[in-house]
Amino acid sequence: MHITQLEIDNFKSFARKTRIPFETGFTVISGPNGSGKSNILDSILFALGITSARGLRAERLTDLINSGSAKNTAEVIVSFSDGTRITRRIKRTPNGYYSYHYLNGRLSKQSEILAFLSRHGIKPHGYNIVMQGDVARIMEMSDGERRKIVDEIAGVAEFDLKRDQAMAE
Ligand code: ATP
Ligand code: MG
Question: Where in the cell is it found (predicted)?
């Protein structure tokens, strides 16, 4: 399964609704510094449910809304090759924000989104995406820390966690 399309609306530098199709195989996004390449990856992480603003290179989640826009919402829709669409929308309010998740257009709990992703081996907080700076960080890690990443990618970490939970009971 792969991502077939992204629709980015008022998220970060994407002031206008932008549709980005992904063909099968290898995709390269190129452009000058500051043109929004990393923002595209941020938009995917946002839609998949990353909850920390820092993980999306923002101070606060409301900073994800295009700063030049009068609109109070940002929205990203990720379409997958099996036809599933995952949407996340954030709405700024006078006291903070609301965050909404939709699965195929139906308002859903984040747990439903995570369950769908997990069935396909996608972990929003995992190493499906290697962020800018991660490579240097991985190089500087201890052997033990690096091993944890390999375990996670290989799918072993999940069983370690379950074993630890079972032992604790
Ligand atoms: P580099 O090649 O340096 O990695 P890049 O193409 O990855 O650059 P991004 O980090 O995706 O660039 O984009 C940075 C730009 O996004 C900055 O100009 C920043 O002002 C803009 N930006 C970030 N958040 C917002 C926002 N909420 N509203 C408008 N613009 C934003
Ligand atoms: Mg970048």
Answer: Cytoplasm
